[in-house]
Automatic annotation (TrEMBL):
Transmembrane domains' residue ranges: 27-47, 59-92, 104-125, 131-149, 181-201, 230-248, 268-291, 303-327
PANTHER family membership: ABC TRANSPORTER ATP-BINDING PROTEIN (PTHR30482:SF17), HIGH-AFFINITY BRANCHED-CHAIN AMINO ACID TRANSPORT SYSTEM PERMEASE (PTHR30482)
Keyword tags: Cell membrane, Membrane, Transmembrane, Transmembrane helix
Protein's cellular compartments: Cell membrane
Superkingdom of origin organism: Bacteria
Name of this protein: Amino acid/amide ABC transporter membrane protein 2 (HAAT family)
GO molecular function: branched-chain amino acid transmembrane transporter activity
Major site of localization recorded for this protein: membrane
Origin organism lineage: Bacteria, Pseudomonadati, Pseudomonadota, Alphaproteobacteria, Hyphomicrobiales
Cellular component annotations (GO), alphabetically ordered: plasma membrane
Organism encoding this protein: Bosea psychrotolerans
Record bears the keyword Transmembrane: yes
Pfam families recorded: BPD_transp_2
Keyword Cell division: no
Annotated membrane topology: Multi-pass membrane protein
Amino acid sequence: MSLAPAPADVALAEAARPAAPPRRRPLIAILLFLTLAAMPLAVSLGVPAHWLTLVTRAMIFAIAALSLDLILGVGGLVSFGHAAFIGIGAYATGIMITEGRSEALLILPVILAACALFAAITGAVSLRTRGVAFIMITLAFGQMAYFLAQALSAYGGDDGLTLYERSTLAGFKPFANRTSFYYVTLATLAGCYALISTIVASRFGRALRAARENATRVTVTGYDVGRIRLVAYVISGMIAGLSGFLLANQTDFVSPAFISWQRSGELIFMVVLGGVGSLHGAIIGALAYLFAEDVLSGWTEHWRVIFGPLIVLFVLFTRGGLVGIIGKLASRFGSRRDD
């Protein structure tokens, strides 16, 4: 029996192979999660207490940014309606808590099923298009979800829905305590990162990346590009729904603003800021975005007027986002040590 790889697998590997794979990716990810795990200890040692809440919120959006990076950075699909999945997760949580069903083990399956259904339906339509048309259709579906949330008058409508209790987990209340909530969020983020990393490293992930580079070539090798992209879109939506669940529990409030196109744009900014295609870059981008928002909003209520041009300049004059900058600095430091 021949041990040589099949021609289709060879072509797939060649199409999916990045130009210059980073060597320090695992190290950066490990350092990142160790730093996040140490944040409660840092707060107990004197770091401002509100940082714990801020980092928790940043990790929640990092989950959504990770999910977006799966289809944007790996699959090359720019979705401008990704916040709809956050809204689905948040509203499912808010509605079930309002109706007396606060157990997370009941809420989460509903969220995952609802996000999967919405992603499957909208993805089947959106993925028939490419480029700007795909962006506009995902934006349209996102706005449909936004206006549907506004129409839910029984659950706050345009004013939003206030939650007077938080979810429980197997009868316990880990979301009621700020520190335990932090670690639940961190564990969820780590789990999502591990899951997406596994997907990206699998044959499915290589096919998705290869389809971004050359869809025709992948089709010729026998892969169904449309189905691969749809499955990735559904997985991405389900993971984003988890961030909606956590966001509703943190804010004790659900609003149509969670689903707005501006929120989808912010997720894209986070991915670009961290480094498109880099999973830990999506996490770093979310942290940087939320910290910049916190600092600039303390200066002026019109902080977006300052932050917008900074994002534009950053994208124009840097490559690879913050992860690219970190990699360059690490390379220079390593070369100096060798000298």
